[in-house]
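Write out structure tokens for Amine oxidase domain-containing protein.
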Amino acid sequence: MSSTSLTARENCDTNDVNAVEFVKVAIVGAGASGLQCAHTLIRDFGFAPSDIVILEARERVGGRLYTTMETRRGLDGTSLHFAMDHGAAWVHGTGLDWEAPLSKEDRSFPMRNPMMALLEKATPSGESVYERHLNPIFLGNPWMRPQSIAHGANQIVLYVNGQELAKDSPLISLALKRHYALLDRVSDVGNTMFEQGEGMETTIQSVKETISKIQDEPNFRSELERLSEDDMEQVLALTPFYLHMIECWYGKETSDLQLCEFVDDKLNDDNADETYTAEGDFYGPHCTLKKGMSSILEPLLRDGVNKRIRLKEEVIKISNETNTVLLNTVLGTQIRANACVLTLPAGCLKETEGRYEFFEPAMSASKLEAISHMSMGSYKKVFLTFDRIFWPKEEAFLGMIRKSSFQTSDEPPGNCMLFDNLWARNDIPCIEAVLSGSAGSWAVGKNDEIIRDHVLSFMKDAMGIADEISSYCQDCQVTRWEEDPYSRGAYSSMSLGALNRHVEELRNPEWEGRLIFSGEATVTEFAGSVHAALFSGRNSAEKVNEYCTLVEAKLCCSQLDDAADKIGFLKPSKLNW
């Protein structure tokens, strides 16, 4: 368990369970957003820790940031220790150089990743943030920029139909060229629809539907005719892998990705990666953390925040009372607050629609519409430990493609699989398979053994291994955010038909400003990321401060009015006397 995890309700000063407690601010959820909100209220707006309570349903803090320290036997027999992130694991771009002397304006959003600000706070004076915390893996976004970031830096090995492709294989260049040409045509289709007044349709039409039409175009098919039959088969098998990488980035299939996501992204085959526009990430290296994502949480627990967290105290009802919000918890506690910040993931918000009177009264129609247009991406990590390393050790990604075959409902869908290969370089015989989108949905509810066997079978077919590699496998751990009742998915995304106004409505307060919505789903540009959760925590703290300031101003005016009334009553009496 991470060192930042809290384990007992005693971490929060509490009153009698049967009494109604009063605080200025009740925060539901001790994930990145909730902790950032509390931290900002105390550090930036002068709230006292005692003004705040954070109610967390789990027995730990962090939400979908969850780090455990693992021990594995290395190839030489020694015990090796490392951090394993079961949820979020990446700093998706450091932004500008955090160690350069920049103005306050340059350090602000969106130039810099807020995760870096927290890592800076967690770094002792005189030490480097990079050296203490960061493992730079890629120079940019490899999921969206495979040509320059993954292949250009020799950070990926590909296996197609049982064979390892040479890194300088012309088939890779052909597949990349076809991939970028495909995305360019997708963008053309979307831009044309906008020009013809059909912009709204780009939110309903999926990328997969668009691609299917493009692939049937004669000009697009003719490029393959000059290839031999074997080479054509390889290119046709490899090209979808780069779309699969995009699916891993978004956590959803192209059949669920809105066409509008790719509108205006005009690409050039020769410099598509160099002209890349950030898609929810920051410029700069994409890194993992040496001690895991718990390093992000540690600074947020300072200044008394950790003492205001109540673990294993699920909120079961939120009611709008006169000028306050009343929260009921599973322990029977009632808490009355001037303002409530709700950081429930989108998947849990959708579930509240079926829970009797979770909100009393119900949310506004516009809020319910916004929630209905949100969805949760499926992203399962299958962490495998072996007694040997039988794959390349240095490259960060392994891409595996197997031949198409008839698939039953008992088999995982798709012919592509991405593997994170971040441990073998340190002689730790571990690798992580990514099951996203429909493959992730397939794995929901299945036990670890079934998932493990299918991943191993996929590896065996794609790599062309004759041995039964299941005998090498010593351990398998599968993340289950989709099954987790307190997340119901890995990270948020917009359903087909969703508009930016739905995200904006999702973060709009209810109940005259007393009920404030926060979390990564409420940030349009960065939805689904840790930095989105941090931005939303700051934003919700600002809304809380504005609302509480207004409440105090009204109270002050009311007291002045009362005083004036009393003075007005006494003056005539004195004059008459």
